[in-house]
Each structure stands twice: as structure tokens, then as C-alpha cells.
């Protein structure tokens, strides 16, 4: 079983505001850094993204992939890889927990498996960099809208 990497951050906003930014895929190129294009391919009955095509440029890793999203209640979203040029698998999730004072703890969990051979230690370090950048970008984006 693949190991995953996770990290958490506290954002000065309500969970609904944080999830609003997470669910707004069209704006990902504005704040994620690595995502240069995002296109929602299909939505569920509630109008939330089910399949999303993302074009990544993360330096050494450039990829065009499609992810399938599953929304669990109002405070959790997870995704899994549908297709990719460089990745064998990409599973992740955002879990939001309300904190006192209109704050939210966001936990991002990620498991990546690339098609090229890579040492587990290097892969986990790359996952950690992706997670930390995403959480910092999310925090900045949400708090700048408050």
C-alpha cells in the first residue's frame, strides 16, 4: 500500500469560505502556482465538479491529467486520478474542521505515484512540497478575499 503525506494549516475564515475557494477550479491558476490550466469536464447534481482536467507545470514535472472528485458533506473533498501522462496514481483530499473564531483547520493528504522510477524518500519530499505550497496558496487566497 502506498504511503501518503499530509499536512495541516489554520485559515482565518469559515469552512464554507475555504471550500468555496477549493471548489472554484477555474481560479486555480491564480493561486496554486503549479496549475496553469483548469477545466471542469463534468459536474454532479449539486453543480460541484466531478471530473476536472488540470495542466501542471511544476518545474521538472509537467503534466496534463484528469481527476475525479468526490464531495463528502460540506467539509471534505477527495480526488483520484483518471488519466495522466506522467502519473500512475494521484489520490488526495482536503478535510476542513471548524475552529472557534471563524477559523478553519485544513488538512491536505496526498499520495502520488509517478510512471518513472523514483525513491520513496524523494517522492514523499515532492509530495510535501506540493502540499505545503498548496496550503500556503489556499490560505493566502482565502484570507485575501475576507
TrEMBL record:
Superkingdom of the organism of origin: Bacteria
CDD domains cross-referenced by the UniProt entry: SRPBCC_2
InterPro entries reported in the protein's UniProt record: COQ10_START (IPR005031), START-like_dom_sf (IPR023393)
Short name of any one Pfam family annotated for the protein: Polyketide_cyc
Stretches assigned to the Coenzyme Q-binding protein COQ10 START domain: 11-138
PANTHER family: COENZYME Q-BINDING PROTEIN COQ10 START DOMAIN-CONTAINING PROTEIN, CONSERVED PROTEIN TB16.3
Protein name: Cyclase
Record lineage: Bacteria, Bacillati, Actinomycetota, Actinomycetes, Kitasatosporales
Amino acid at each position: 500500500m502506498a504511503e501518503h503525506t499530509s499536512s495541516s494549516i489554520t485559515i482565518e475564515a469559515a469552512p464554507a469560505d475555504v471550500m468555496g475557494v477549493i471548489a472554484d477550479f477555474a481560479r486555480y491558476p491564480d493561486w496554486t502556482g503549479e496549475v496553469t490550466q483548469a477545466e471542469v469536464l463534468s459536474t454532479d447534481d449539486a453543480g460541484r465538479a466531478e471530473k476536472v482536467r488540470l495542466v501542471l507545470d511544476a518545474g521538472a514535472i509537467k503534466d496534463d491529467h484528469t481527476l475525479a472528485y468526490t464531495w463528502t458533506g460540506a467539509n471534505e473533498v477527495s480526488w483520484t486520478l483518471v488519466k495522466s501522462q506522467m502519473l500512475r496514481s494521484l489520490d488526495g483530499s482536503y478535510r476542513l474542521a471548524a475552529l472557534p473564531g471563524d477559523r478553519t483547520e485544513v488538512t491536505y493528504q496526498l499520495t502520488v505515484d509517478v510512471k518513472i522510477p523514483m525513491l520513496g524518500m524523494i517522492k514523499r519530499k515532492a509530495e510535501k512540497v506540493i502540499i505545503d505550497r498548496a496550503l500556503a496558496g489556499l490560505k493566502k487566497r482565502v484570507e485575501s478575499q475576507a
